[in-house]
Amino acid sequence: MAPGLLVYDLLFLALASLTYGAAAWAAAEAHARLAPLLGGAFALVPAAVVGLLALIAEVGVLSALCPKLVEGRYPLMKGRVFYAWLFRSMLRRLLMAPGVKWAIFTSNVLRWLALRAMGARVAFTANMSSDVDLLDPALLEVGPGAVIGAKCFISGHYVDRGRLVLGRVRIEEQALLAAEVSVGPGVTVGRRALIKPRAGLGPLSSVGEEAQVGGDAILDLGARVGARAKIGQRVHVGVRARVAEGAKVGPGVTVDDAPG
């Protein structure tokens, strides 16, 4: 494991040097051309935007050359899907580095371009906080008008007994994830659903359209909340348990009625 981590760091250092270097060169060239027209100080911001666009374009080209990620279970350190996922993690780090991420995610246009470059299927009208943590953009779908709030964490993978598990995350039209919501791989959040602060949506769980999940609630592996259902704060929906359409579950209740 230690040699693999060292090789990963060395490869990322080489990749970062090449891509950041090329982006910096593009920014410097843009500044040199714009400075006579705008003045040196006023040319800094558009030159920086050119550099960010160059970096996003580089990541987009490299992502397009990677094999697509497919949902499933894969052995670690083996196979094209695992190494595609590993290389995509490097590309993600390029655009999610502190400072770079802030500059990109504070702009609606740059954020959309960056996420699309990394393989995410994100509508332009989707909105998200600048401090969200997206581990696997290539496995993310976000519909029009959806909102992902402050410090939300969304992952399209986890590791289980020597296997990499990949699952697509779908956040549908006008769904709202409030602050600090955690979302695992294979999760679907339906149209106009509301997920309140600090809720956790475990792998393969789903929330139906217009349903509400209370703050600090937990949906365990494969749990399902039906359309227009409302579950209160600190509710625990157990493994593969189901909350029926339109049902209401009060605060602090444990739902454990998984079908046999």
Write the layout of secondary structure elements.
Layout: H1 2-38, H2 44-65, E1 72-75, H3 79-96, H4 100-105, H5 108-117, E2 121-122, E3 127-128, E4 133-134, E5 140-142, E6 147-148, E7 153-154, E8 157-160, E9 163-166, E10 169-171, E11 176-177, E12 182-183, E13 188-189, E14 194-195, E15 200-201, E16 206-207, E17 212-213, E18 218-219, E19 224-225, E20 230-231, E21 236-237, E22 242-243, E23 248-249, E24 254-255
Parallel strand pairs: 2-5, 3-6, 4-7, 5-10, 6-11, 7-12, 10-13, 11-14, 12-15, 13-16, 14-17, 15-18, 16-19, 17-20, 18-21, 19-22, 20-23, 21-24
Antiparallel strand pairs: 1-9, 8-9
How would you summarize what this structure contains?
The protein has 260 residues and is of the alpha/beta class.
DSSP summary: helix tally: 5
- Total number of beta strands: 24
Helix content: 25-40%
CATH architecture of the domain at 122-255: 3 Solenoid
**Alpha-beta classification:** alpha/beta
Major sheet characteristics: 7 strands, parallel
Net shape? globular
Q: Uncertain regions: pLDDT < 50 for 5+ in a row?
A: none
Based on CA atoms alone, the radius of gyration comes out at 21 Å
Mean of the pLDDT scores?
94
